[in-house]
Amino acid sequence: MSGLLVSLQDAVVQGVLWGIMVLGVYITYKLLDIADLTVDGSFAMGGCVCAVMILNFHVDPWVSLGVAAAAGMAAGAVTGLLHTIFEIPAILAGILTQIGLWSINLRIMGGKSNVPLLKTDTIMSKFIAATGLSKQAAAMIIGIGIAIVMISFLYWFFGTEIGSAMRATGNNQAMIRAQGVNTNWTKLLALTISNGLVGLSGGLVCQSQKYADIGMGTGAIVIGLAAIVIGDVLMGKLRSFASKLISAVVGSVIYFVIRAMVLRMGMDANDMKLLSAAIVAVALCVPVMMNKWRIKKSYTEGGE
Amino acid sequence: MLDIKNVRKTFNKNTINEKKALNGIDLHLNEGDFVTVIGGNGAGKSTMLNMIAGVYPIDSGKIQIDEINISRDPEYKRAKYIGRVFQDPMLGTAAGMEIQENMALAYRRGQGRGLAWGIRTSEKSYYYEALKKLGLGLQDRMTNKVGLLSGGQRQALTLLMATLKKPKLLLLDEHTAALDPKTAKKVLEITQEIVEEQNLTTLMITHNMKDAIQIGNRLVMMHEGRIIYDVSGEEKKKLEVEDLLKKFEEASGEEFSNDRMILAK
Ligand SMILES: Nc1ncnc2c1ncn2[C@@H]1O[C@H](COP(=O)(O)OP(=O)(O)O)[C@@H](O)[C@H]1O
Ligand SMILES: [Mg+2]
């Protein structure tokens, strides 16, 4: 029983740390209507950069986290340039960056596919040393703290003039261009900010699990989409922007809790990706099928 | 005010779908001109407005507003001078955003956008008054999402947004064509009120010949990417729909071939 409790607590912590990534996915997928596949690569990049910074360059863990976010932003900017200046479809632009990042991330880690952080300080270990909290409690407080800061930042940012223009870009590009906004710029900026959050999340996960791995971001986009779907199902009734952002993080927590439970029930960890993909696919199919069904039902032969 | 010199545009050049949409357009608008534009389907009316707004680059020619050459400026830069309303009511507004948010976006047309708050409290009373003038009750629904509005309401809002910050030039592309007759009439009335009040230089495409004759101080007719008839002042006021049809046949050597126009007679 206590084993279950521990693994659920672990899952909640993971959910919060990955929740920062989900916020990034929320920006592109929900606000800009772009499915950005850069995420898998920029998440791993955040982790790899963070690990190497701490281990090889002895940089402060907090600063390393900042560098991880900056690396993610750079990756997002590359996708943004490919998509806006060179007019490559967003999905393909994201795939290209993601594939390229695989090699770059390996280089960052000096050719190794895994960099452990065994004896070095992390933001969690420092926090534990300062407060005497348990490992889980420390990671949880840090995760929730950063999530609150990021949600506040996004709430503020999307209320500003640039942020509003960005939301309008996701709504109706013709309209916002007619109002004098360069939509290439807003899209580029959105992809940059989004992947900055993703890189930050990768850095956090790396420090909490005490290693970076070349494959740590594989499937991140699907986790992100699944978390958004779950959050939407649970909290979709709430309309305010702040609650939408919170629901993304909550969705992430629920996702990891579900994951922990099905794993405990004996599901093969490798099947988890299939389950995630199925969740997202079903969530995308349901509205379409409902609509088709409605049209079919409303058909009457010969009118009336 | 607006100066268009020998503007040409061919779509899909050197392909089987090559289409000469504009064949040397020359047009000069004076400050305060309200010009109605008519012509058959595919005459190039929308293309002319799109070229002025910068939706696509022109092949050759020159477009100037108040002596400023905007021929090669991108669409978002020209927006500083131009307010626009499209034929499709869905195109002019952001459906997922509030009425007041849409207005705040339009109020900043052509200005640099920074990290200041997207909508200031002080603006809201201005928007309230502007919406009230429309007479559609939208002033009491300022925090509603625009997606909840009808086509006519959205078109009236788009019109208001296009003129919230006075544009040098207002471009209207059959902006009442997608509305039912009653709503179309209302939106057209609002259009006239706003244009008159702000003394806006306006180009309005319409498929209704009667409207084209009655509204504005000048009328141009287009055919195959050219302006084939340009009339203003007293002469325009005396026009009849029959005169326009005859003019068209004279200039083009064809029967007028726009179903919607014939009906609008
Ligand atoms: N984006 C485009 N690509 C290719 N052809 C176009 C495009 N826009 C307009 N055309 C063509 O140019 C011609 C003029 O179109 P348009 O300006 O829309 O006519 P109107 O508004 O007078 O009905 C038409 O033959 C149309 O098919
Ligand atoms: Mg047209």
UniProtKB/TrEMBL annotation, chain A:
One of its GO terms (molecular function) is transmembrane transporter activity. GO terms for cellular component: plasma membrane. The chain crosses the membrane at residues 12-29, 41-59, 90-109, 137-158, 185-205, 211-234, 241-262, 274-290. It is a multi-pass membrane protein. Keywords: Cell membrane, Membrane, Transmembrane, Transmembrane helix. The keyword RNA-binding does not apply. It is found in: Cell membrane. Pfam families: BPD_transp_2. It comes from the Bacteria. This is ABC transporter permease. It comes from Lacrimispora celerecrescens.
Automatic annotation (TrEMBL), chain B:
One of its GO terms (molecular function) is ATP hydrolysis activity. The keyword Transport applies. It holds the Pfam family ABC_tran. SUPFAM superfamilies: P-loop containing nucleoside triphosphate hydrolases (SSF52540). It comes from the Bacteria. It is a peripheral membrane protein. Residues 2-249 form the ABC transporter domain. SMART domains: AAA (SM00382). Its main location: membrane. GO terms for cellular component: plasma membrane. Keywords: ATP-binding, Cell membrane, Membrane, Nucleotide-binding, Transport. PROSITE patterns: ABC_TRANSPORTER_1, ABC_TRANSPORTER_2. Coiled coil: none annotated. The keyword Nucleotide-binding applies. It is found in: Cell membrane. This is ABC transporter ATP-binding protein.
